[in-house]
Design brief:
Layout: E1 4-6, E2 19-21, E3 38-39, H1 46-50, E4 61-63, E5 81-83, H2 90-106, H3 108-116, E6 132-136, H4 140-149, E7 155-160, E8 168-169, H5 173-176, E9 182-185, H6 199-204, E10 210-213, H7 222-230, E11 235-238, H8 251-254, E12 258-260, H9 269-288, E13 295-298
Length: 299
């Protein structure tokens, strides 16, 4: 059966016999969508970008450009396979995660504010080197973070539900949490991970430790984190927050010892080429009758 593919790229290469649609020739808000069989929602459009799929009567594949897929589950109707973009954002997200860790550890949050005041304020900060590091969530991004950290003099322990790829099981984390200087969070958001980092776990972190969240905001109890930050006991680097977007006046904005990025982990110049190449390879598999990769749900 011929496939009708919609993606955000006008120059996406599709196999012979496939029909390519894009914003150039098919407006998701106004045009007829019922012929689309393979839908790639626009990147970074969240749930709103998924809504047009409800008008796609012949949809067979909902292919995300994100690794997270919690928003898309409700749109995977019977007969629709849901695939994520695991691997596409490894480099960008790991890069930002390490950047946040260095920035928080070396005091960039103080440097920027001092620069705004035109104030030369020098003191000694902690180094990333000689840190004991935990990576909670040891999938492809977690492993890439570990790879990038490998050039520093650090000790790294990965934690995952399965305990594979040289990681420990998450069930062991609570026993060891207090020994880490830096903890990276890059686990998927689900019922088990919702507010995984609650007040109790934050309280177990050693004084002066850094929490880096490049996963999903609701994995951390925001109120509990704000309390620890205001006490100046912990530090944080956050690419995601709960709520998100973080509204004006929210206490997290003014909390000390914290750097906040507006959920840009995967949204870098590295995304376009990797994202497009991934979709094109998925379509090649489809044309050859091969199973798609990164299937997270088939109903």
């Amino acid at each position: 059966m011929s496939q009708v593919v919609w993606s955000q790229w006008d120059d996406l290469e599709v196999p012979d016999g496939f029909v390519r649609l894009s914003p150039q020739n098919c407006d998701l808000k106004t045009d007829e969508l019922k012929t689309i069989t393979f839908f790639v929602p626009p990147y970074m459009n969240g749930r709103e970008g998924l809504l047009p799929s409800l008008k796609m009567e012949r949809l067979q594949t909902l292919q995300l450009l994100t690794a997270g897929y919690e928003d898309a589950i409700e749109f995977a109707k019977p007969g629709i396979q849901l695939c994520n973009a695991r691997g596409v954002h490894d480099a960008s997200t790991a890069e930002l995660a390490v950047g946040l860790a260095i920035s928080v550890r070396r005091g960039f949050q103080d440097f920027i504010r001092a620069q705004d005041r035109q104030e030369w304020s020098s003191k000694r900060y902690n180094s990333l080197n000689d840190s004991n590091i935990a990576i909670v969530g040891f999938g492809s991004i977690g492993q890439t973070i570990a790879k990038y950290l490998g050039v520093y003099d650090v000790s790294i322990t990965g934690y995952s539900r399965s305990g594979k790829n040289g990681s420990k099981q998450i069930s062991e984390f609570d026993v060891e949490i207090s020994k880490y200087d830096i903890i990276f969070l890059i686990l998927p958001l689900n019922a088990e991970s919702h507010k995984f980092f609650n007040a109790a776990r934050l309280a177990k972190m050693k004084d002066g430790a850094v929490l880096i969240n490049v996963a999903r905001g609701p994995i951390v109890d925001t109120d509990a984190l704000v309390k620890e930050l205001n006490a100046r006991r912990l530090f944080a680097g956050l690419d995601v927050t709960d709520p998100e977007p973080l509204p004006k006046g929210h206490p997290l904005w003014s909390a000390p010892n914290c750097i906040i990025a507006p959920h840009v982990g995967g949204n870098s110049s590295a995304f376009e080429s990797r994202g497009k190449r991934f979709i094109e390879k998925q379509l090649e598999r489809l044309a050859k009758g091969e199973p798609l990769i990164n299937k997270v749900l088939f109903t």
